[in-house]
Amino acid sequence: MKRSLLLLLTVVLFSCQKQAPKKETTVDLAHSPKNTVDYVGTYKGILPCADCHGLETEITINENATFCIKTKYQGKGDKIFMQKGNFEWDKKGTTIILKGVTGGPNKYLVGKNTLTQLDIDGDKITGSSAEEYILSKQPLDTTRIESAANNNEATVDLNSRMATTTVIQKVNPAVGKYTLAETKWKLVSLNKEKITQTGKKIYFLQLSTKEPRFTAYAGCNNIAGNYVMPSSDTLDFSDVIMTRMACPDMTLEDKFGAMLVQVTHFKLNGATLTFFGEGKKILAKFEAVK
User: Fold this and answer.
1) Are 72 and 81 in contact (CB under 8 A)?
2) CA distances from residue 107 to 35, 99, 140, 204 in whole angstroms, order as listed
3) Which of 57, 130, 131, 226 has an alpha carbon within 20 to 30 A of 271's alpha carbon?
4) What 3-state class would DSSP assign to 116?
């Protein structure tokens, strides 16, 4: 009798569990950070870095769904890497996704006055280091990393979309034995200071005619990027990328990078190439490698 009663209770319990209605997961978009949090602004912090002391990070989130992210590797010079683009929200309206940012995390959980960097899969990082991935919203009067330009150092623009879409001149404007593109140009002076070459590899700049690309070297890292010629005497460098070797002295390289992003005009006179900035300020001089 007891066994029959136990069996009956088990059947009834199983039937109740089976008939229990399933709970549907719903997303309350009306109360998501996208609609309730004042997320527009600039966020700063030092994120963990696998091969540096820390990654100084500044992200500006704009109301028109655009962003600007600036990063600087502590202990590896003063270069600031900058990228701009559009962002989108995830389906829950809790996380922004920086479009065009590849090779690393691009998802940030939005909180009240915070952005939390998520891992490559979009999951929150846990453990003792979890708080190290949080960026804090900044007051309006301190909404930027100190500009590398103010320190005469290099700001590396990682996209410069306007510049890279400019139509490149089909005809090389240089006349004579040496041309702006294809000629290998040796750096002889920078900011009116004579350059003393060290090592076996010369400090150079070389532009390609097959594609809007350039390569360069200034003592430590290999440098490359895009260039455009809006007119016959104007020049603009963009999408500058560099290898990340840490060398004893990267002062010249940093100044060279800063010079590239300031170039607006050039002049070719025989075997001499001169770069100018705003106000026709002489930035650098090169000599053709014969």
Assistant:
1) yes
2) 18, 9, 24, 38
3) 226
4) strand
**Dihedral sign, CA of 159, 161, 167, 172?**
negative
- For residue 61, the tally of other CB atoms under 10 A from its CB is 21
pLDDT tens, position by position, 233-274:
888 888 777 776 777 777 888 889 889 988 989 999 989 999
CA angle 9, 13, 15 (to 5 degrees): 120
Short-list 201, 253, 191, 261, CA closest to 226:
261
| Residue 157 φ then ψ, to 5° | -80, 115
Structure tokens at 12: 């009834």
Distance between CA 41 and CA 94 in Å, rounded?
A: 16
Helices (H), the chain: 2-19, 33-36, 161-164, 251-262
- Enumerate residues 6+ apart whose C-beta is below 8 A from 46: 54, 55, 56, 57, 74, 132
In angstroms, rounded to a whole number, what is the distance separating the alpha carbons of residues 86 and 219? 36
Under a CB-based contact definition with an 8 Å cutoff, are residues 255 and 152 in contact?
A: yes
**pLDDT digit string (tens) for 149-176?**
444 445 655 554 333 333 334 444 444 5
DSSP 122: S
CA nearest neighbour of 207 among 249, 179, 241: 179
DSSP character for 3?
H
Sign of CA dihedral 149, 193, 246, 243: positive
Inter-residue contact 120 to 23 (CB < 8 Å) = no
Residue that the structure tokens 């010249």 belong to: 252
- Percentages helix, strand, coil for the chain (3-state, rounded to 5) are 20, 35, 45
What confidence tens digit (pLDDT) does each residue in 56-98 have? 999 999 888 888 898 888 877 777 888 888 899 999 999 999 9
